[in-house]
User: Fold these one by one.
Assistant:
Number 1:
Amino acid sequence: MTLLWGIFGIDMNVWLDAFLRLQIVVIVMTVTVMGLIYLERKFVGRIQMRLGPMRTGPFGTLQSIADALKLLTKEDVRPATADFWLFELAPYVTFVPVFMTLLALPFMEGWFVRDLQLGLFYIVAISGVTVIGYLMAGWASDNKYALLGAVRSAAQLISYEIPLILGVLAVSMVAGSLNLNDITRQQDTIPNLLLQPLPFMILLIAILAELSRRPFDIPIGESELVGGPWVEYSGIRWSIIFALTEYAGLWGFSILGALVFLGGWQFPFGTSSFWGDFDFLYQLVLVFTKSFFIILTMMWISATFPRLRIDQLMAFCWKVLLPFGFLQVLVNGIVLTYADDETVRDVLLFLTSGALLVVMTYAIYLATRQPSREERVGSMIAARSAQ
Amino acid sequence: MIGVLRSLGVTWSTMFRKPVTIQYPTEHRKVPERDRAFPILLWDFDVDESFCTGCHACERACPVECMTVTMKDNPKHAEGVSKRRKILDEFYIDYGRCMRCNICVEVCNFDAIAMNNTWVGHELSTVDRQDLVMDRDQLLALSKTRQIRAWVPE
């Protein structure tokens, strides 16, 4: 890959280099988004014992292309009472941050649009901007459902940003760096998933919430709010919001998870050029496989659970994820300060984080436990006899 | 929390089950044995004519009056081939009107009319109501291909 890059002297010209890398990311993103839409429809279909798209192309593989064509040629309707500039710009404001997160991701060793020293921080910071787009769309649509959805999504996205940051922070403490390349390179023997299982769970849940995917889809909940902030959108604007933002976000975050927690291109065999010139292909396949594993897990979760109530959603964030995130950061600090030997440090990190994960699971179990029938009847009888 | 894991298990197991969906227009589920679509006329292969003699019994019994039958002298009776003195001349059933009550089948003295029990009887959508008025040849066509299954009286 670097060879190919060097032939044309592209690496000499910084602007051309950045531009070409951006183009590659855009193309790969678009293709991946189309693939993901097809994958999700098929996967959820199979879970619900349906077939999913079958008609367009062999096994419906051309469905995404057909959908894209249909959405691009559809009329772009704007309500008469909508605020023109806010309404027209909102899709871009939601999409651009998601796209910008992709710029800092190292898809292969030494291949990224820009190698940022604060890459992790940059991604977390930039992805928080999306909420402005949601609010703009909801406000500008002049529609009560849109506004409700926008306010809900503002509450949800800002809340779940914090556990996301804490989960990522805990890992960067262990790695001692915010540079994604460094974090990935350190995981040649043990992936961070083993060292930090709790932050991985927190990250997974926070990503689901950040992307407004199904158990956390109160901002766009079809049955209550029709489509949330996107009620009034159609055609190309809707496809930018829905298809691009949602699935590019899903893809970007899952790549992030694969790099930070699953060892990226480094983990099972390292990057020793065992595959020779095809080493970059191997790395690419590895990163994509890992990210698809995360994506499928998220789709599986999305297809399983019903939507949470808004108070449950908030309680889960502020009472469960946030305290345990802070606790993890605290414990990590103690372990990293006092454990000198690397093996001891790794074992301690695994044990503490695993223990915290078990405690968190047990806390959720206690909080959501339905009392048995006998207990409920008993308490009713006790309440009656007390009267 | 246990419910969370259990529900994940349920979706996991349904993922590997055979999908219940079938590709309908190209693939058909089997029609039940006594499925009742619209009435059709039956063909007597022994003498190569319809069982129906045009006796008007079904037309008179039809509650929605969707049938029109006319009768003529049977030329094959004159030749001595057939026992039927009279045979149907024209037979129209307006499928748009028929309510599939089965009365015409009940009253028929010659077991000449039967309820269609194949998929053909269900996929009749047209763009014009006129096309739902079936004439004699259309009503006899299915029986001539011997696709009516065995429960139809012989």
Number 2:
Amino acid sequence: MGLALGTATVVLVVLLWELVRPTLVGELARARERWARRDRALAPAGYDPGRERRAEQRARKLLRSCVSEREWAMYRDLGFLSVPGGPRLGAAEESAAYAYLIYPHKPLVAYVPASGELLNEYCVSFPDHSRPYGSSRLPDSDDVLAKWMALTADERRLVGEANMHLPGRQVDPDRIRRDLARLDRWEQERERRARARRPAARGARPPASARADGSVRAA
Amino acid sequence: MKLLRMRPGHGETVLAEGDVEVPEQERELIEAFRRELDAGMWAAVPTEAPGGRREAELVKSFDEVPRDAERVIFFPRAAGGAPETTL
């Protein structure tokens, strides 16, 4: 009796499975198609490295046309900008009480130029919610220019919009110290070249030390 | 005067261009300016301060744009926060 019932149950289950299997398989296939369509609709436009490179080239041209020659050279050579903070009274950067390092798509880093002491990180971004190519992220140089414009125009407002953190929250302090050392060397080298060019510009012979290392360029 | 806007994946685009001394062109510039501000953009005019120092000026209306400005650059307004990554 038990055996007959068991056998009947097994046969019944198999028959039921055979009946519903085509429907289940069809439903699963349709669900997979619906999920794929939804994923395709939500997915951003494909990343195009050529387009991004052209965008960055345009952004670099725009940045170059807005900042000073010194700032452009700094960004080109070092990959970041240093902008003095506080009242903009024409003070040279080295005499500013504090300054900011501007990295592309990284927080602003406030520091003391005289001592190299790190003060704060100001996390700020410029997301374009229209996402024309699926991303809200500006090209690197546009992000730097946006920070530079906002900082030089209205430092207080920009800092007010930012989230302030202690140094090290997002940017490695060792990296910043290395960058400050690079900046220092870069400034010294620039000053040395400027000194070497001055006599040449006046038609005089440059100092022997400048001639010896071959760093003098035609004025 | 040119009105430029920074765009992800493209760099800047020219929104409008015209002579502010020509009323019709000025009207077009003003309309484009307002559209961008209504869309939440910030507007900045790159300037050169006495002594040759470069800086920018944020403007909130077309009246604040210097008449001799060559360009106004629109960019998304600042938002606190940045990607949680480490250099």
